[in-house]
Design goal:
391 residues, Putative MFS family arabinose efflux permease, MFS_Exporter, membrane, MFS_trans_sf, mainly alpha, globular
């Protein structure tokens, strides 16, 4: 019975997550940078617009994780789905850059809460093959991410920005309705005994250098991912690509993640997390370094897919590694710390890249981003070797 319940939970939360992430991704890829440009935003302002949705992750990820340990995962997930369902309609009222920043800030709370608590719920329910299960869920939600650029690009080309935001709202409303049917935890897991363990769990996470090193890897990867997500579309537009082709290039990147992530999660469960994370960082760095030297649809599509493979390799193992290292049952708290550090990186990425693009151009900006990933690989490799010697 337990296995059947777990299997149903994974499938059901994956459907809900797919619809929610479809909504949020369609509101930003490739729509957000193009809509920002339409409003007259400068490259630096576009960086701030993209950053606005990641700031809530810094503010709310850990508190949301703690609340989910105390109140239950279902309650907190429903709160995030409510934000998913209301934010898209606010875009319809935007006419100024600052208004777009405000809406993005509100929208960011949805993904910050949902990502943290859903990951914690899966880590809590599945012990064996944890990376594979977490990666399977992530890939299921990335189905939404993959459809979003194609659908968003087509809707912009055939209709308007407003039509995109209506589609976002419909998808998120469906996620909220289905989310209300998610099963909750057993009452036995929600006792007040969890309260002191939350504090102990936070202390243990912050003191564990290997957990923090893993979190820094996640931050570095998402710093670059956020930058590519924000500026790759503009780079392609500067080369004369229409919106629908930009959607293809970005969509293929996400499609590659769907197929690679569960596979690399399975490999990670068998051979060890670091043997997947380090090559993934190096591969992603190489692809980012190569981006400015391709100007054809086929070339950029291939390089974008390679970046997706590297990204999938890294993120298939980072959350699972943190869960493995958690010495108690407060998975919400530990995932909250991971997501907070990750969101700091994702917040810095677009702003840093916007400044670099404006001052030095795309070639230098992408080279620096590649250097960040390479440095992260070296430092994590050192931390991994040191940790293994202490075991």
């Amino acid at each position: 019975m337990i296995k059947i319940a777990n299997r149903h939970f994974l499938v059901f939360i994956s459907i809900v997550g797919g619809l929610a992430i479809l909504s949020s991704t369609m509101s930003k890829t490739p729509v957000l940078p193009l809509f920002s440009h339409y409003l007259g935003a400068t490259p630096a302002e576009i960086g701030w617009i993209v950053m606005a949705s990641t700031i809530p992750g810094i503010l709310i990820s850990f508190p949301a994780g703690v609340l989910s340990d105390l109140l239950g995962k279902r309650v907190v997930i429903l709160a995030s789905l409510f934000i998913f369902a209301t934010a898209p309609f606010a875009y319809l009222l935007v006419t100024e850059v600052w208004e777009l920043i405000a809406v993005r800030f509100y929208h960011g709370f949805a993904t910050a809460i949902f990502g943290t608590v859903a990951s914690a719920a899966i880590a809590e329910r599945y012990v064996k093959d944890r990376a594979q299960k977490m990666s399977a869920f992530s890939s299921a939600t990335i189905v939404g991410r993959s459809v979003a650029p194609f659908l968003g690009g087509v809707l912009i080309s055939l209709a308007s920005f407003e039509m995109v935001f209506w589609a976002c709202g419909i998808s998120a409303l469906l996620a909220l309705i289905l989310g209300m049917m998610l099963p909750g935890e057993h009452k036995a897991t929600l006792t007040t005994q969890a309260r002191p363990s939350v504090i102990d769990g936070l202390k243990a996470v912050l003191k564990d250098r290997y957990i923090m090193a893993t979190s820094m890897v996640e931050a570095s990867q998402y710093l670059v991912f956020g930058a590519i997500e924000a500026f790759l579309a503009l780079f392609e537009a500067s080369l004369g690509f229409p919106a629908w082709e930009i959607g293809i290039i970005l969509g293929v990147q996400l499609v590659s993640i769907i197929f690679v992530k569960p596979l690399m999660g399975s490999v990670s469960d068998k051979v060890g997390r670091e043997y997947v994370i380090i090559p993934g960082l190096l591969l992603a760095g190489l692809s980012v370094l190569s981006l400015p030297y391709f100007s054809s649809l086929a070339g950029l599509t291939i390089v974008s897919a390679i970046f997706g493979i590297g990204f999938a390799s890294v993120t298939s193992s980072t959350s699972a590694l943190v869960a493995d290292l958690t010495k108690n049952q407060t998975y919400g708290s530990s995932m909250g710390v991971l997501r907070t550090v990750m969101d700091i990186g994702q917040s810095v990425g677009p702003v840093l890249t916007g400044w670099m693009v404006g001052r030095y151009g795309y070639v230098t900006a992408f080279a620096i981003l590649a250097g960040i990933l390479t440095t992260a690989a070296v430092l994590f490799g050192y931390a991994s070797v040191k940790y293994r010697r202490l075991e």
